[in-house]
Each structure stands twice: as structure tokens, then as C-alpha cells.
Amino acid sequence: MALHIYGDESGQVGGKHFLIGLLFVASKSHSEYERQLQRLKLQHNFTHRELHYSELDRFKSGFAKAVVDWYLGATGAVFKCTVVPGGIFDSRRFRENMKFISAEEMSYNVIYKSAINFHSTDTEKSEPKVLIVDRKDKARPDEFQRYLMEKVPNVADMQEARSEDHNLLQVADLLAGCVNGDLNGVQKFDKRTVIDHIKTRLGITDFRQRNAYTKEKFRVNFWRPPVQKRSSPTSA
What is the pTM of this model? Predict the structure, then answer.
């Protein structure tokens, strides 16, 4: 079975929290899901070009909650994200990288690649993949694409797309933004009501919690620095 993976980011590398949100969708379902989301927009009279977490207000929060409910009923889609708390990821080790890009850009690429590979099961790693990421991503586009194509197993195609052209990218944006907003203690009512709706539906009070539902549909992983191996003492 092939996979479509829709990726979006929230926050900045080195900020309080940086998050890569990934929506894994069975390739056989992605076209139908796009149509379902388009119909949902019509049903809710959602006349805006696209749905963004950052732009949630009283006119959009109702539709955003409907999208959350749609997602939780979409059996062929799983949201998986990696959160990098500020100060955990040391970008300085990439200052002398051989790609001739900045340490921050290389860090971004490494985090993105690591998030996809970490959240892919052994079976998913062996399956052909189409990566669709929001064009606003900050790494240099040519190097970013080349890096992921090289470092993620079995990528058949990669597209840097406008989110307005992909409803599923908008879902990834919404879910990732809600996780990051909650971690950062957002208080704006319209955002808060969507975040609380997600947590109520998942049966959690904190995105660090795990239960059977989150393992199935809403996986949040927190980055941990790699364990440094100690060198063995040399015999005299």
C-alpha cells in the first residue's frame, strides 16, 4: 500500500517549541478525502480560500471543529508529530555541514527527515511515498527536496505545494498548530475552543498523555537528544 504524507511546521527551530506535523494518508484514500473536505466546506458555508490555525477566529472555529471531527472519523489517516522543545536540538553541530547551507537550515532538514522516519513503521518505510509539504517551509527548496528524497526511504515523489490547493495540508496545519498553541499556553478564545475540542474528543487533558485513541489517531512525540556513547578506556 502506498502512502501520501502531508507535512507542515509550527514554530521555529530554536524557539520555545518547534513542531513537524505529519498527516499519513493511505494513497488509495487521498483523492476521496480531498473531495470530502471540499464538501464539508460547502456544508459549513466556509468561503475562505483555506483553513489555517494561525487565522482562527469566531467565523472559522466552528468549521475547524468540524474538520477535527472529520479527521477522527477518517480511518485511512493518522496524524503524527514531533515536538522539539527550545534548547534541546543543538544546531551548532551542523555549522560545517557539507551541504553549504546554514546550521539552522540543516537542522530544519534533519528534524523533518527524522520526524518522518521515526513515525514510519517498518512496513511504511518499505512502501512508496508521496511527500507533500507546505511551500512556506524555510529551508532552501532545492536542498530541502534533495535531502528528503535521499534520506527518507522509498520516496516516489515530493511536492512543495500551496496549502490552498490541498485540503489535507490544511488539516495538517490545523492539528500541528493546535498542539503547538496548547504547549505555548495560547489564550485566544477561538483557538482555545478548537484545542479543547480536540483534547475532549481524544479523552486527554494534555498532549503529552497517551491512551489507546492517541496511539491510533494522534501521536505526539517529544524530541530527545541522542545519547552520546562513552569511549572505552584504553588499555595501558
Answer: 0.90
Longest dimension (CA), the chain: 78
Residue 43 DSSP class: H
Crossing angle of helices 61-73 and 30-43, in 10° steps, is 150
List pLDDT tens digits, range 50-62: 999 999 999 999 9
Place of cell 551541504: 99
Residue 71 backbone dihedrals phi, psi, to 5 degrees: -60, -45
User: For the chain, what's the residue count?
Assistant: 236
| Kind of pairing between the strands at 17-26 and 77-85 | antiparallel
Class of 3-222 in CATH: alpha beta
CB 16 within 8 A of CB 184: yes
Q: Which of 39, 114, 121, 135 is nearest to 78 (CA)?
A: 121
Read off the pLDDT of residues 90-105 as tens digits, 9 standing for 90 and up. Answer: 777 667 765 667 777 8
C-alpha distance across the termini of the chain, in Å: 56
Kindly list the domain boundaries of the chain, sorted by start residue: 3-222
Measured distance CA(72)–CA(123) in Å, rounded: 23
- Specify the pLDDT at position 214: 95
Q: From the CB of residue 170, how many other CB atoms can be counted at a distance below 10 Å?
A: 25
